[in-house]
Amino acid sequence: MAAASALRLAPGFAALASHGPWTAKSRPGRLSYRAFRTVTREGPWTPRAVEGEIPRDLCGTLYRNGPGQKETFDVPLGHLFDGDAYLTALRFAEGRLSGLSRFVMTPERKHELASGRMRYHEFGTRCPGRALGFKNPPNINVFPMADGHFALSEGAPPVLIDPDTLECLGARDFAGSWPARTTFTAHPKRDPATGDVFAYGMTMTLFPELVLGRLAAGESAFAIFARAPLGGVYPVHDFMITQSYVVVALPPVYISMWGLLRGRCLAESIVAEPHKPLRILVARKDGTKPPVTIESHPANMIFHHCNAVESEDGRTIRLISIETEAVAGFRALEGWGRATTLAHPKSQMTEFVIDVEAKTVARTALTEGAPIEFPAIDQRGLGRRMDAIYALRTFDAPDDPLAFDTITRWDGAGFRESRARRGQVFGEPVVVPDAAGGAWIAHLGYEADRDETFLDIRDPDDLRLVARAWFGFRMPLGFHGHYVPDVG
Ligand SMILES: [Fe+2]
């Protein structure tokens, strides 16, 4: 992977005036909502202040992605997933941090800005009046593959971006290799041993299929190595790889095409199948055998997996994932931006031991109580070693399950935690390797009193805070991203 070169800095901040009359301060809400409100700035920036010392061996760029607005002109966007993609590149060099942030200028965003009003349905908010269709902003993740950086939406093709300027270069289908009318995961996986990238999609056809593809290291086209009929469109959000397998968990909810045809947005078209089991599909990466499906109860939504490793003989897979009550989870996401009371959906970190030959699953709960989400590992151990797992938890925020106030580290035996101060909420941790062979934990955070975003650098073992950079403005905490170390 080529290193990102130095960010090209245009002069000064650009103040955003694209979403008036709704301003970021005009809509109060729960703490996590405030941490996701509309951005206030685009352009290059440097931190207002740095506490502690940013490690000098940290040389590279951390890319983050998430929805950048919570209103489109006069329409409030209430769902966590709503809003155009807003990218940030955080560049570390010689103990200093600089940033570049901007919206991904998709054709739909350009169209709405030119129109001066909402024209598309968002994930959870309908466009008032006649909609031109569904918007799938690439606001979930940003991932390097096929010699490019891609902003990812899950429901639409990957969008190529310039890693230096964050300019939107348009959707791509990898030289025509990704099947037409097929979604593309927002969580591709790179096998650390081979450099191959794995991805899944769902064909949006009358008889939907799960499609699994491999982008061999150094190649620009995917090879599709497995297809499996699904019987419906299931909102699979993540998957996992091991040395030999790809593992996909199908949730007990599906997306009603009938609902979408009737003009409902995606969030309104999710239908529960409460009596169905969790279906775990296991496919061989070499495509030599058809995928097998293994059923397990209870059926929960798995938004994110942590890691998976297979036994030496390849017979069993140890998979660790974050389970969340499906119906309550989607309800919380939908009601999150509104004043309604939010129940905490039950969630836990679970260890699944999958016997691929016997087609059985044993499960063990690793956490209980406080909500847990946004797991992270050192990607150098993905699918190969069960190293430490990091995640966020919410211990002290009734009515706000997404106000993550704790970062936690699980080492296979126990948990170590670091709590946020009251009024702060943490964003997804990322393990960032340094030039000395070590690694750090980096995550965004939001401080309500100052209405300001910050970046924490933490010790990977004891979670001790090593440095905190205050941005001087607020940007949404967002969802996911990746780190690209400098080379040479
Ligand atoms: Fe995700």
UniProtKB/TrEMBL annotation:
<keyword id="KW-0408">Iron</keyword>
<feature type="binding site">
    <location>
        <position position="480"/>
    </location>
    <ligand>
        <name>Fe cation</name>
    </ligand>
</feature>
<feature type="binding site">
    <location>
        <position position="237"/>
    </location>
    <ligand>
        <name>Fe cation</name>
    </ligand>
</feature>
<dbReference type="GO" id="GO:0046872">
    <property type="term" value="F:metal ion binding"/>
</dbReference>
<keyword id="KW-0560">Oxidoreductase</keyword>
<keyword id="KW-0479">Metal-binding</keyword>
<dbReference type="GO" id="GO:0010436">
    <property type="term" value="F:carotenoid dioxygenase activity"/>
</dbReference>
<keyword id="KW-0223">Dioxygenase</keyword>
<dbReference type="GO" id="GO:0016121">
    <property type="term" value="P:carotene catabolic process"/>
</dbReference>
<protein>
    <recommendedName>
        <fullName>Dioxygenase</fullName>
        <ecNumber>1.13.11.-</ecNumber>
    </recommendedName>
</protein>
<feature type="binding site">
    <location>
        <position position="187"/>
    </location>
    <ligand>
        <name>Fe cation</name>
    </ligand>
</feature>
<dbReference type="Pfam" id="PF03055">
    <property type="entry name" value="RPE65"/>
</dbReference>
<feature type="binding site">
    <location>
        <position position="304"/>
    </location>
    <ligand>
        <name>Fe cation</name>
    </ligand>
</feature>
<comment type="similarity">
    <text>Belongs to the carotenoid oxygenase family.</text>
</comment>
<dbReference type="InterPro" id="IPR004294">
    <property type="entry name" value="Carotenoid_Oase"/>
</dbReference>
